[in-house]
Amino acid sequence: MSSETGASPKSQSSKRTSAPGSPGGTVGLHDAEHWVRLAEAPEEEDADSTYGADVESSTASMSSSILHYRTIHGRTYHSERGNAEYWATNDQQQLEAMDIIHHFLTLVLGERLYLAPLKKDINSILDVGTGTGVWVMDIADEFPGAEVIGTDISPTQPSWVPPNAKFEIEDCTDRWTFAEDSFDYVHMRYLYGSISDWNALFREAFRACKPGGWVESFEASPRMESDDGSVAETSAINEWGKFFIEGGRKIGRPFTIIDEDLQQKGMEAAGFVDVTTWDFKAPIGGWPKDPKLKEMGLYSQAAMEQDYEGFVLYMANMILGWSMEEVRVYCSQLRREMRSGKAHPYCRVRVVYGRKPEAPSN
Ligand SMILES: C[S@@+](CC[C@H](N)C(=O)[O-])C[C@H]1O[C@@H](n2cnc3c(N)ncnc32)[C@H](O)[C@@H]1O
To answer: What is the structure's pLDDT at 240?
Structure first.
């Protein structure tokens, strides 16, 4: 079924680029030898050893071709599907990371699944790019009177779900198959790096949303930043975001959603009103003193620790032509820096929601 191609799921060239030894070259990323040298450097004393210990601790309409996953260096990716191109693996290790991220993001929203001002009696909800479907199952429990549909290009959702939830295979970069005015609420989370035309995405969401209904988009920056200078320019932590930003440019699917304000612009262009933006710096790692922020940070780090390789392999392979071994060396340096507790990284997250105007009364 799957084949070891060493190329991206879309069979783009993964030719080894002559990456420079230091940033400032063609893609501003360090080469693999740089991370090997760092990995061989003696370990400095752990600034916060307890910190590391905390962390260790329509399926029916699916055709069999969507199970023909492609493989890069032993990790599986979604099968060929129209224009879709998604950069993370879809195997068990990655799905577990996604479930941990779901918990982290729920904490980020103050133990909520959404921010839009939804009425309790809504009866149709759509989650686009649903992943493991965990958000769908949680919202289906919260709105037992609503039918909830989750769509994705990978059939990675469970079959035992609440009676009011179901999953369908659908490429959100194509015209959506749902009739106009179908949903009271459309939710989209973490689609960065998957969408080439964000305005088109919001146009489809607008069409599928009922007049008076809400659309909500939750995105993040791939950069790990710090406010106290603790994320050093030359660190593996700092390098992380560059893989995604450069890779996103290369595949024509940006990760710079927040930098470019694509959510607000796309919603306003589509015709949404009462567009509201909420920004937050979500900690990564257990460094915050505040117990709630610390809990968030421990979950976000746990999600990354669950599968650093599965997040970054596709981009590292595509931009730099790295082998799995080279990716592992970089990830082990990243793990070491994260566990040291010396850096205080966070990533920016942004939720934007807007309402489709009521149809004008005649
Ligand atoms: C980072 S995951 C986020 C999953 C989920 N929204 C969450 O927040 O837990 C992105 C998901 O979008 C899906 N995806 C990527 N491109 C897609 C497309 N063109 N159409 C539908 N889903 C897509 C991927 O398969 C993956 O499950």
So the answer is: 94
Tokens of 40: 């061989």
> What is the pLDDT at residue 21?
39
* Residue of 23 and 238 predicted with greater confidence: 238
Would the CB of 351 count as within 6 Å of ligand 1? no
Quote the ligand 1 centre to 152 CA distance (angstroms).
6
From the CB of 164, is ligand 1 less than 6 Å away?
Answer: no
Identify the sign of the CA torsion 64, 198, 252, 187. negative
**Per-residue pLDDT reduced to its tens digit, 142-197:** 999 999 999 999 988 998 999 999 999 999 999 999 999 999 999 999 999 999 99
Residue 312 beta carbon below 6 angstroms from any ligand 1 atom: no
Which residues are within 8 A (CB) of 194 and not within 5 positions of it... i.e. 6 or more apart? 84, 85, 86, 87, 129, 173, 253
The one-character DSSP state at 16 is P
Q: For 41-66, how does the pLDDT look when each residue is reduced to its tens digit (9 = 90+)?
A: 776 654 444 344 445 444 344 456 66
Q: At what angle do helices 92-108 and 291-306 cross, to 10 degrees?
A: 160
**13 has pLDDT over 80:** no
Phi, psi of 52 (to 5 degrees): -60, -40
CA of 10 to the centre of ligand 1 (A): 16
Looking from the CA of residue 171, the nearest atom of ligand 1 is: 20
Q: CA–CA separation, 353 vs 115, rounded Å?
A: 8
Closest ligand 1 atom to Cα of 78: 25
Q: Say whether 132 sits in a helix, a strand or coil.
A: coil
| CB 325 within 8 Å of CB 211 | no
Q: Is 94 in the pocket of ligand 1 (CB under 6 A)?
A: no
DSSP 45-63: PPS-HHHHHHHH--GGG--
Give the predicted TM-score (pTM) of the model. Answer: 0.87
Cα(320) to ligand 1 centroid in Å equals 24
